[in-house]
Design goal:
- This protein has 336 residues and is mainly alpha-helical.
- The chain is 75% helix and 0% strand.
- The chain is built from 20 helices and no strands.
- Helix 7 runs antiparallel to helix 8, helix 8 packs parallel to helix 11 and helix 11 packs parallel to helix 14.
- 32% of the residues are buried.
- Keywords: Phosphoprotein, Repeat.
- GO terms for molecular function: adenyl-nucleotide exchange factor activity.
- Interacts with the ATP-binding domain of HSPA1A. Detected in a ternary complex containing STUB1, HSPA1A and HSPBP1. Interacts with PGLYRP1; this interaction blocks the cytotoxic activity of the PGLYRP1-HSPA1A complex.
Amino acid sequence: MADNRQNRRYPQNLQGVLQLAVEAGSAAEGPAPAEPMSEERKTWLREALADVCKGQMDEVEQMKQCLAVLRKEEISENEREGEEGRDDEEDEDERESAFEMLSELCENLDNARDLMILGGLELCFSRYLCHVQSGLRWRAAQLIASCSQNMPQVQEHLLSMGALERLLQLTDSDPHPTVRVKALYAVSCLVREQEAGLQVFLSHDGFSVLMRGMQSENEKVRTKSAFLLLNLLTSHPEQKDTVVSMGMVQQLVSVLRTPHSPFHEHVLGALCCLVEDCPQGLKDCMNPDLGLEELLRQRAKELQGKEESQEELDFCEHLRSMCVRGQQSDDNGMDR
């Protein structure tokens, strides 16, 4: 019996404990047990819970150790001359490893909350989002994204310290493409399904940042910018007039004229959003000077028969039909 118990896999986190509880509850809904819980079963449950608690404590200690590494003052030039066997690269590697460990640990929502309480997010914001080393900038942005995803308490904490403004700046102008990609990921985590985050995004001209992102030379930045634009327009249709007034239709069509790329699917999706229940957006798309109808006809022809491009083709045909109907409506109005 003891050997069997040692071979059992105990839950290593709260999700595992919850699963254990669900399974126990499901079993309880069946026929009543013939006898009370055995001593072996009680011992197994006690050991499982003890292992979970021990694992959580170990993870908090790991986070504290990582933060100790990140909080160390960086060596000045004079101090570095007196140090043997240590250089900038070694110090940077140690900090990068600490960030990677924290990002892995903070996939657990409880750990993300604990990191906030331990002051780890303030450290990311105050020291590392503006760090001279790009490898530390993007890892700080990635950690912020991991912690804030689906965590309103963490999102509000980050918004209160001004993290979104800094992340938008990095997305827009950081010289390193990976920093821009990770910063945009963090922006998305702070804005999607977060009304307060959306308001900060709007107040700092976030849609213009996305517009410029779609014109970036980096494919990942273009893709994430277009995807976030589509998501925000879908979730917040009240923002369509604002976006159209910025000349977004003309900009998106300009993007579509660049060499074809998979992210054009999101661009076409955003254009579809801007013509639905938005008269000015439809009017802009129908402007003959834009040449959108011919562009869509040519694009649809290129996509025919490509299964992987079916959604993009659907967007093309939907947008064309909306423009045609809009033109027919205008013609009928003129005839009257």
